[in-house]
Structures are given as structure tokens and as C-alpha cells.
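Thread amino acids onto this structure.
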């Protein structure tokens, strides 16, 4: 039993880094408590753009970064932006339970698509799940709740499938990349969906790696 860890919610059990708490106190002491731009502080967006650009070897501009209330808030903003009532979003099962609710918030329909027995993306199952109403697919790695780290090849194969569908049907399908656990990988490399597909919306936060879930510090990239 002591080798089983529950990451389904990811509530931290240790204190945040001392450097973070020190910086938080310093910022609070400066009295910066007024309204800011809805998109987030420009300096914060610039830092996030640099951070993502370095990690994924892709171009991220501060103008296209949105600071959000956690990764859940990021997914909700993204879904509201792309999903019209009646449109479908594929979720890979087993999945984080709130995905279904997020999609339904905007009149969308969640379509459950099973992972393989090894908890990898079943490319043919995804193919069968896509319809003319499909608007997106939520991709999560390291995967919640199984802990699986998806391989670059697996995500490349997914990207190839979605490109094939787009070329044949002309429909636009987005990949919503939910990756708040991505900096908690120790023995494997994080796959890069930005190398696999051209319509990727990243939703993440600093909740897990810094242990600051209660701060709700998220972003869209």
C-alpha cells in the first residue's frame, strides 16, 4: 500500500519552496492589489512565454498567453473559445472527472474514448470516435489518473491521424494539452505535442510542481 500514490486531485502534501513564499510575501508587501488586465500581468505573460518556448522549442508570444485561475480555469476558457453547443470533445478514458463537466459547461458533448490496456492512446479508437461534430480532444500527460507518461511516437501518431482527418474532411480539430504534472517526470522525457500537430492549446499551472494548488496560478499557451 505504501507504493500506491493518489494523484487524482494532486493536492500538495508538502510546503511550497521557501523562495516562492518569500517572493509572495515581498509582492504582497508592495501593495500591488489593484485590477490588472483581464489577460494577466504583461510581465507574467512574458515570463510564461519564455518558459514555454524553452521547454517546447516553439514560439510563444506574450500577446497569446492568458493567465487563468488554475489549469481548470485555462481549460474552461479554451473550451468556451472553441466549442459551440452540440459540438463534441473527445476525452481519453479513464479521465479526470471534471473534463466532462467542463465540456458540458458550454453546451458541448463529451465523447469517451478508451485508452489501450497499457494506458496509451488507442489511435484506431480515436479514429472511430471522431465525427463531423468533433471540435477537440483533451490530451493529458503525465496522465491523470493512471500516471502514464505518453510517448512522443504515440502523440505523433495522434497528430498524424488528426491531420489526415482534417485534410479529408476540412474540419478543424483542436488538441487541448492539459499538462500540470509535466514537471514531475523523472525517468522519461515529456513528449512535445507542438511537434506533432499544428492546433495545440496548452492549459497548465504551477499548482503541482511548486505545490501551490491553492494559489490557482494557471495559464493558456
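Threaded sequence (221 positions):
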Amino acid at each position: 500500500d505504501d507504493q500506491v500514490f493518489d494523484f487524482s486531485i494532486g493536492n500538495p502534501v508538502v510546503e511550497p519552496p521557501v523562495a516562492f513564499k518569500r517572493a509572495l510575501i515581498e509582492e504582497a508587501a508592495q501593495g500591488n492589489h489593484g485590477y490588472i488586465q483581464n489577460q494577466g500581468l504583461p510581465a507574467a505573460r512574458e515570463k510564461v512565454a519564455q518558459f514555454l518556448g524553452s521547454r517546447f522549442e516553439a514560439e510563444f508570444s506574450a500577446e497569446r498567453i492568458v493567465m487563468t485561475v488554475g489549469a481548470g480555469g485555462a481549460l474552461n476558457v479554451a473550451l468556451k473559445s472553441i466549442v459551440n453547443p452540440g459540438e463534441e470533445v473527445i476525452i481519453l478514458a479513464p479521465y479526470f472527472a471534471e473534463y466532462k463537466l467542463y465540456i458540458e459547461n458550454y453546451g458541448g458533448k463529451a465523447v469517451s474514448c478508451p485508452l489501450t490496456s497499457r494506458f496509451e492512446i488507442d489511435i484506431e479508437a480515436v479514429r472511430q470516435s471522431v465525427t463531423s461534430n468533433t471540435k477537440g480532444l483533451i490530451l493529458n500527460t503525465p496522465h491523470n489518473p493512471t500516471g502514464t507518461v505518453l510517448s512522443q511516437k504515440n502523440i505523433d501518431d495522434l497528430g498524424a491521424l488528426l491531420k489526415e482527418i482534417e485534410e479529408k474532411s476540412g474540419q478543424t480539430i483542436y488538441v487541448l494539452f492539459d499538462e500540470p504534472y509535466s514537471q514531475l517526470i523523472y525517468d522519461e522525457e515529456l513528449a512535445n505535442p507542438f511537434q506533432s500537430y499544428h492546433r495545440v492549446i496548452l492549459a497548465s499551472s504551477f499548482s503541482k510542481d511548486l505545490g501551490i494548488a491553492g494559489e490557482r496560478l494557471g495559464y493558456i499557451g
